[in-house]
Design goal:
single chain, 2 helices, 15% strand, alpha+beta, two-stranded antiparallel sheet, two-stranded parallel sheet
């Protein structure tokens, strides 16, 4: 892949500046592909300028647990009036935006599917890891 080709109205554009929305698993995987392309491309091709935009203060996307936060997502709440309140969405404890992850959640995908090839889970990780792993 020498460039990201976008064909619009018969004109071929070669995008070199890449914006990726979100630093969850998919965003990190996309950034990695472009970074690897930079590392393996020849000198005839200018490198990609990669920008990853994330609204939270850490990577992880929806797997980033926000404890003790009330959010307006359509998930069970201790009090239904919390869904109608106007409030700052950011979690006061972490400064991040709330995600739908709850404390006891484990994935339904095994570790070999969820891990990056060169960043495996530790051998002691359960087959279906929790958000803390």
């Amino acid at each position: 892949m020498a460039a990201v080709d976008i064909e619009e109205c018969g004109v071929r554009l070669h995008a070199r500046r890449i914006g990726i929305i979100g630093a969850g698993a998919a965003g990190l995987a996309a950034a990695r592909v472009f970074a690897e392309e930079n590392a393996t491309s020849n000198n005839d091709t200018p490198p990609f300028v990669i920008t990853v935009l994330e609204r939270n203060n850490a990577v992880g996307g929806v797997w980033r647990y926000t404890p003790n936060s009330v959010c307006h997502y359509n998930v069970p709440q201790p009090d239904s009036s919390a869904l109608r309140q106007k409030f700052d969405e950011r979690c006061p404890k972490t400064g991040g935006f709330p995600t739908p992850i709850y404390d006891e959640l484990s994935t339904n995908l095994p570790t070999d599917v969820m891990q990056f090839p060169d960043v495996p889970f530790p051998a002691s990780t359960d087959e279906f890891p929790s958000h803390t792993e």
